[in-house]
Task: inverse folding
């Protein structure tokens, strides 16, 4: 089992009331799955991805990742775990404006104490795989949306994560670019990478091997 969420509750306090973002949520994910999370805006999709990606905590419940209790860990160990195993792809690309394409892709490797020669090789692989060798010295502002998203995915993949979390990965792209990105996820999944994507799109969701519906922070068992 790659990860397991048991009875997760997450809330914020607004004017003395608890507003639930996730409510008694349970989820088991096996290695190699491709899961789509669907639901209207505000249903908790991004919150769930952030909890799985260890960017967000929660108030009640337990979270196990590779049999380790994430909720009981010190922040330092948690951060080490997600840098080691998890890659994020966001709708808004989140590239670092003042770094070149090459440097953006290299960023995750700097956290992992990988020697310079190996870093070069890994980044070169990614540039090659995504056909962006010619763009390596450009800055994000010089790229189209589709190219920025490719760089975002290359960056998420360069450290060879076990799990890719994608939040509306094609949200800002035209349909051809979107389809290209989804095909790419499908290939990665066939190579053994586990993928969890949040999406509004039925078309994108269909690439997954199963779909999870959320409504008001809980599983909607349609």
Result:
């Amino acid at each position: 089992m790659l990860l397991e969420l048991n009875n997760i509750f997450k809330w914020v306090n607004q004017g003395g009331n608890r507003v639930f973002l996730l409510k008694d949520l349970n989820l088991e994910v096996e290695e190699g799955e491709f899961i789509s999370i669907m639901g209207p805006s505000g249903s908790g999709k991004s919150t769930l991805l952030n909890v799985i990606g260890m960017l967000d905590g929660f108030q009640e419940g337990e979270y196990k990742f590779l049999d380790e209790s994430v909720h009981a860990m010190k922040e330092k160990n948690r951060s080490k775990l997600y840098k080691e195993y998890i890659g994020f792809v966001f709708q808004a690309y989140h590239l670092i404006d003042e770094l070149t394409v090459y440097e953006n892709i290299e960023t995750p490797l700097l956290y992992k104490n990988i020697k310079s020669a190996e870093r070069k090789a890994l980044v070169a692989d990614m540039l090659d795989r995504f056909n962006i060798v010619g763009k390596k010295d450009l800055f994000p502002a010089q790229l189209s949306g589709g190219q920025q998203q490719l760089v975002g995915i290359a960056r998420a993949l360069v450290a060879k994560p076990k799990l890719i979390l994608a939040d509306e990965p094609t949200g800002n792209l035209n349909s051809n670019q979107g389809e290209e990105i989804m095909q790419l996820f499908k290939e990665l999944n066939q190579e053994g990478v586990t993928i969890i994507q949040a999406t509004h799109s039925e078309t994108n969701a269909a690439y997954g091997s199963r779909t999870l519906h959320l409504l008001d922070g809980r599983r909607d068992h349609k």
